[in-house]
Amino acid sequence: MHQAELPDGSPVWVVTGWQAVTSLLADPRMSASKSDSTTGFTGQNLPAALDQNLLNIDGEQHRRVRKLAAEAFAPAHHARHEQVVVGAVAELVDALPAVGEIDAMGGLCEPLPPRVIGTLLGLPDEQLGEFRSAARPMFLIDTSSGGEAVQGAMSAMLMLVAGVIEDKRREPGDDLISDWLTARDGQDRLSEEELMSLAFAVIIGGFENVTSLTSAVLDELVRNHGERARRLLGVPPEFAGLVREVMGVVAPVNYALRRFPLADVEVNKVCIPRGHTVFLSLRSAHLDPARREGRDLVFGHGRHFCIGAALAEMQAVHVARAVLEKYPRLEPVKLREQYRLRPSWLTYAFAELPLRAG
């Protein structure tokens, strides 16, 4: 347990260790809703139409919205999602050079999530570039700009998503937004703001986090598990199991989204006052010797477990498979500690992934 300051000077509590972190992730007293904050950092100031997303609500509202949203990510839809992922991965990997140095970040890991998420949301191909440009600034925690870039990006994203929702209302398709437009729980349905906030949450979780995950998994496989991974290429379930194992090792997200205690909470004999900002250190939990083999927090834990976890894992598996199948001999160009990193304290994420094919 530590008291700390964020780069902007906001005071926060940082909870470390497997037991404490997993316990608080599942604790109903730890709210994700900024309305339960009494002091300190609450996150980005989102437009009202984006503020009520799954990452920023809790209690009955969270249960209701998640129930209406979850059907679109149910196993019955995985085949449709996988078709999109496989097609996007194949196109990107085919475009990589056959030999020599490969820009696996710029050529594969960065462009993949926008293609997948944009297609699944129902965006037309010609809007995917605009889609990524609007989303990218929202993932870089940099207070030097005064938040102007983030606010501009959110406004652009709001306009894009609102346009797609209107298009799908007139002409539904085989996509997430169309699924959400028709989702029902008895007489209950999603409001316009909830629809936009859902799309926003999928973008937040599905762009930069997946880029960080796929690049970290690919680097770890090539660097430390190449021989084993190639042996398992012909056994898809075991190859997927190896990727899942590696995900628990590299786990690029440093902290879970901030939480606010609904009452004073005692952690390791220290009292965190009601409403104070708390960050749960996922990285410390993964490094804790008390963590049992096979358990991880890659996609969180408890009621805020990532709704798109299967889709993210699917991308990591197919990226690794396609690259290893194309390149019988592959090695990192740099030591891992030489990689440039993305300017975010929330994630430990590579800004580059140069590989060499022989």
TrEMBL record:
GO terms for molecular function: heme binding; iron ion binding; monooxygenase activity; oxidoreductase activity, acting on paired donors, with incorporation or reduction of molecular oxygen. Keywords: Heme, Iron, Metal-binding, Monooxygenase, Oxidoreductase. Gene3D superfamilies: Cytochrome P450. InterPro entries: Cyt_P450_B, Cyt_P450_CS, Cyt_P450_sf. Belongs to the cytochrome P450 family. This is Cytochrome P450. It comes from Nocardia jinanensis.
